[in-house]
Specification:
two-stranded antiparallel ribbon, single chain, alpha+beta
């Protein structure tokens, strides 16, 4: 069973309805696996900002197949809690684990010459 399916089944147990009611939200959280195939993909959406972004994408509520209105924020929080050891991390929690590299802090000035980019 894929992770989104696990989460969708969990949502159906918690909020009612069927797993299909929730699969799009859980697929959205885990679509970042396309750029990093291990748990580090979670740094892109599995946090407080990702939950807020999920609400922007899916709206404040969905109505499941049982006719129950469910807050998207609750579904998103459930996903993150299940994947992050029972907690909802912040973006800062993820980013503070990334060691700073010089390239991250250095801007490279550029000039445009005849429509091409040259580094000075």
């Amino acid at each position: 069973m894929t992770a989104p399916c696990f989460h969708a089944e969990s949502s159906a147990r918690i909020f009612g309805g069927s797993p299909e009611d929730y699969i799009d939200i859980h697929n959205w959280f885990d679509e970042t696996k396309t750029c990093m195939g291990d748990f580090r993909h979670r740094a892109l959406r599995h946090h407080t900002f990702g939950i807020a972004d999920c609400v922007k994408v899916f709206g404040d509520f969905i109505t499941n197949s049982a006719g129950k209105k469910v807050a998207v924020r609750y579904i998103a929080e459930q996903h993150v809690i299940e994947d992050c050891g029972g907690r909802i991390p912040s973006v800062e929690d993820w980013l503070k684990g990334i060691p700073a590299q010089m390239w991250m802090a250095k801007a490279t000035p550029t000039i445009l010459k005849h429509g091409t980019r040259e580094i000075r």
